[in-house]
């Protein structure tokens, strides 16, 4: 199950789209590494990169949302915190059991990122466009 960027996920905000593409890229590399049974230290390093990219991306989004008075900002921040907690849990589970991780990663990551972009970010983009801010 390949995780590739699709223009359907474009928000129209260049920085957010670039960060989404980066997240899709890291997740696809992670999926491939797990699929081929890459060495544990390589997978752990890439998981760390994924967490760092996600934190950076969420901080960027939250800055935009705060700046423009997005009314769903508190809920979006809560969603971000929940997603990061889930991602960190996945990271911890990998350290416990590489095999369990191999079974969980593709489904979890694809669903997580698609939900983030389609359900979360596009609502914010609609808000911005309705106010001619994007």
Amount of beta strand: under 5%
**Major sheet description:** none
Average pLDDT metric: 82
Number of domains: 1
CATH fold field value: Four Helix Bundle (Hemerythrin (Met), subunit A)
Give, in order, the helices and strands: HHHH
Stretches where pLDDT is under 50 for at least 5 consecutive residues are: none
CATH class: Mainly Alpha
Structural class, by secondary structure, is: mainly alpha
Radius of gyration: 15 Å
Overall morphology: elongated
Helical content band: over 70%
* CATH architecture title: Up-down Bundle
> Number of DSSP strands?
0
Q: Note the total helix count.
A: 4
**End-to-end C-alpha gap:** 33 Å
CATH superfamily descriptor:
Hemerythrin-like
């Amino acid at each position: 199950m390949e995780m590739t960027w699709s223009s359907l996920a474009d928000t129209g905000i260049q920085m957010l789209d670039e960060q989404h593409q980066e997240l899709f890229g890291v997740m696809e590399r992670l999926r491939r590494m797990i699929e081929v049974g890459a060495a544990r230290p390589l997978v752990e390093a890439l998981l760390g990169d994924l967490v760092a990219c996600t934190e950076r991306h969420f901080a960027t989004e939250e800055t935009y949302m705060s700046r423009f008075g997005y009314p769903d900002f508190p809920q979006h921040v809560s969603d971000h915190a929940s997603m990061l907690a889930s991602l960190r849990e996945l990271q911890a589970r990998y350290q416990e059991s590489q095999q369990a991780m191999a079974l969980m990663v593709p489904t979890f990551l694809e669903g997580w990122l698609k939900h983030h972009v389609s359900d979360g970010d596009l609502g914010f983009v609609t808000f911005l466009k309705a106010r001619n801010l994007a």
